[in-house]
Amino acid sequence: MGKPTGFLEYTREEVPEREPLERIRDWEEFHERPAENLLQRQGARCMNCGVPFCHGGEEVDTGKPAGCPIHNLIPEWNDLAYRGLWREAYLRLRKTNNFPEFTGRVCPAPCEAGCVLGIIEPPVTIKQIEWAVIERAWEEGWVRPEPPAVRTGKRVAVIGSGPAGLACAEEINGFGHHVTVFEKDRHVGGLLTYGIPNPKLDKRIVRRRTELMTQEGVEFRTGVEVGVDVTPETLLKEFDAVVLCVGAGRPRDLAVPGRELHGVHFAMEFLAQNTRRLLGEELGKDDVISARGQDVVVIGGGDTGTDCVATSLRQECKSLIQLEILPRPPDTRRPENPWPEWPRIFRVDYGHQEAIALFGRDPREFSVMTKEFLGDETGRVRRLRLTQVDWVNRKGRLQPREVPGTEREIPAQLVLLAMGFLGPDPRVTEAFGVDMDNRANIRAEPRSYATSVPKVFTAGDARRGQSLVVWAIREGREAAREVDRFLTGATDPV
Question: How far apart are CA 480 and CA 484, in angstroms?
């Protein structure tokens, strides 16, 4: 359990990050490798709780999930890290998490939100310990290819190589089935490659893992778009099962006057293009989206919006504003948001830190609605018309109401829409003819992950809706188990 008195002797110590004004000059990760003695002190703080909510991942009394969705054995590897048994810690971590090098970097750490110590003190730095364990494992050579000893002769196609697709493929391959992953882009990784900026997750980290999977027998076919380059009929004929892990990449749009103006883009267009440039992919001159020298406005206050902020800063934007229609979150939990739920509180993320360091202020403005995009004679966006809103209860639902007299205009030559996602690409779902639910996600049985089409399964954001990387990994693992059950009539627990 770590050190019995550790939670009394030590406080939370954050892993240092590179200075904001330094890191915005490059595309390297902003994290710094934590010192092992620091992490051992954090492992010592773990209390070995009677009910460790950190690795629960299931709904609590409020009906909302709390803790780690993949049920990481957190108290166990916290103790092992405290005792300096790093290889043993890696072996425990590997039992539940296919890709701790991803979650250790990009996960918001619902495990820490569920830490019992967090009721009275800052929680254990679980995420940082996880990151250190897996990087030590890679450096020491403990992470090795693990091809299956026996092949079943069954063939499975996984469509999409994001976190759900990769987790699903790795597990299915481990069961002994042949797995082929189809990816429409040039590089493997999906969201991990094209959706998360390099400073958060270096693409060499993704490549390192997928190269290992190749050595284990997983086949990757890139630049193949299902429904265009290969038909569902062909896949269903050639493979014994198909798993749709295509994500929920259809972006939410903003239907206001001037939306058609040049310079208004979806956030993922901007982020994906920047990654393509870093990866050396060719871009057409007419297609380049650049923040250099521009007044940039990001509409949307979530993680994707923050990534747009950080990327715009590194592209040397002239000014930067991030608009959020919702009110500013509280500094502390409200009664309706109790522990161990994820705390809905005000945070300053890496992109905001960088903007504050460069411009001297937080770029975010809350309770702001965009009413119109204003352009020039060439059809390019030049300004935004905004208004403040307050939120009123109408028939039990909170709705925004414009505040009279608050209209104003701000300059903008680049607008990035980061307002969330509405479901998977309909071209894929329509091609397979799968049923959809009332949220425009692929309908599947909660436990079997089977769609309405025989032999076709689904997992990740395509089924669940927009969510976290760690939830995608969980869904990929569970879908793999059900595919194995479908192919063989039984399965080993994942």
Answer: 6
Both 283 and 408 in a single domain?
A: yes
Chain segment 2-23, per-residue pLDDT in tens: 788 999 999 999 888 999 999 9
State whether 166 and 244 are in the same domain: yes
Q: Within this chain, do residues 225 and 329 fall inside the same structural domain, yes or no?
A: no
SS (H, E, C) 373-428: EEECCCCEEEEEEEEEEEEEEECCEEEEEECCCCCEEEECCEEEECCCECCCCHHH
The alpha-carbon radius of gyration of the chain (Å, integer) is: 23
If asked whether residues 275 and 395 sit together in one domain, one would say yes
HSE, CB side, 13 Å, CA atoms: give it for residue 55.
Answer: 21
Model pTM greater than 0.85? yes
Tell me, yes or no, whether 36 and 128 share the same domain: yes
Q: Residue 335 contacts by C-beta under 8 Å, 6 or more apart in sequence?
A: none
**CA 205 from centroid of its chain's CA atoms:** 15
Q: Are residues 364 and 230 both part of a single domain?
A: no
Contact 224, 185 (CB under 8 A): no
Same domain for 320 and 345, yes or no, is yes
**Residue pair 459/471 in contact by the 8 Å Cβ criterion:** no
Instruction: Assess if residue 325 is contained within a domain.
Output: yes
Q: In what order do the strands lie in the sheet with 264-266?
A: 264-266, 414-417, 295-299, 319-324, 364-366
- What CATH number is given to the structural domain containing 119? 1.10.1060.10
DSSP state of 204: H
Tens of pLDDT, residues 172-201 = 999 999 999 999 999 999 999 999 999 999
User: Is 148 inside a domain boundary?
Assistant: no
Dihedral of alpha carbons 352, 356, 359, 361, sign: positive
Q: Which domain holds residue 136?
A: 6-140
Phi, psi dihedral angles at 417 (to 5 degrees): -90, 110
